[in-house]
């Protein structure tokens, strides 16, 4: 109910939709180099599952990368491709992002991507982080983070890039930025 209300309350949704259609050709032209089809390892299950309801125009994106939906390069690439596909579909007007994992929305950046990797890999990884938040923040869809678990650091960033956030009321679930505690600094961009 709350999600539907949030979608309905978005003023000028029709204007938004016409805005989407007017720039949809641009979107098609702006497929970023990051999203050029990558070698897909079909032996691993998809990390993102999208359910699109044609009758409401609302897509639900389930993050399903056990155990904690950490934001790895593969995960972020898959997420960005999914967002981009929905963005190009003019009949999709709203996107709800949620987690299929119990108790965790997203644990933030995958820490293993930041340790012992080549500078090239680190560059690709941080570009994919940037790509993720730019895609969500700049989306023409109404975006909602349905935060059904803890969402530290990069998970918080992802939620913040959405138009609306609704968080499950559970004192065990935390959200916020903990980079200082971790001793890392997000690179300048
Ligand atoms: C201008 C603003 C710029 C902002 C830029 C954004 C920058 C963000 C930086 C980051 O995101 S760095 C990552 C920060 N994240 C964390 O510190 C989260 C740490 N994890 C937790 O707090 C907990 O794991 C949890 C998410 C609350 C879940 O707790 P739970 O008890 O359910 O599970 P665990 O037993 O702790 O973990 C299970 C399993 O998952 C591994 N893991 C957890 N988090 C990460 C992670 N971020 N990356 C990679 N792996 C992670 C953990 O090690 C366990 O693995 P194991 O093999 O089963 O031991």
UniProtKB/TrEMBL annotation:
CDD domains: crotonase-like. GO terms for molecular function: delta(3)-delta(2)-enoyl-CoA isomerase activity. One of its GO terms (cellular component) is mitochondrial matrix. Keywords: Acetylation, Fatty acid metabolism, Isomerase, Lipid metabolism, Mitochondrion, Transit peptide. The keyword Isomerase applies. The keyword Protease does not apply. It catalyses: (3Z)-dodecenoyl-CoA = (2E)-dodecenoyl-CoA; (3Z)-decenoyl-CoA = (2E)-decenoyl-CoA; a (3E)-enoyl-CoA = a 4-saturated (2E)-enoyl-CoA; (3Z)-octenoyl-CoA = (2E)-octenoyl-CoA. Signal peptide: none annotated. GO terms for biological process: fatty acid beta-oxidation. SUPFAM superfamilies: ClpP/crotonase (SSF52096). It comes from the Eukaryota. It is found in: Mitochondrion matrix. Pathway: Lipid metabolism; fatty acid beta-oxidation. Coiled coil: none annotated. Its EC number is 5.3.3.8. Homotrimer. Key enzyme of fatty acid beta-oxidation. Able to isomerize both 3-cis (3Z) and 3-trans (3E) double bonds into the 2-trans (2E) form in a range of enoyl-CoA species, with a preference for (3Z)-enoyl-CoAs over (3E)-enoyl-CoAs. The catalytic efficiency of this enzyme is not affected by the fatty acyl chain length. Belongs to the enoyl-CoA hydratase/isomerase family. This is Enoyl-CoA delta isomerase 1, mitochondrial. It comes from Pogonophryne albipinna.
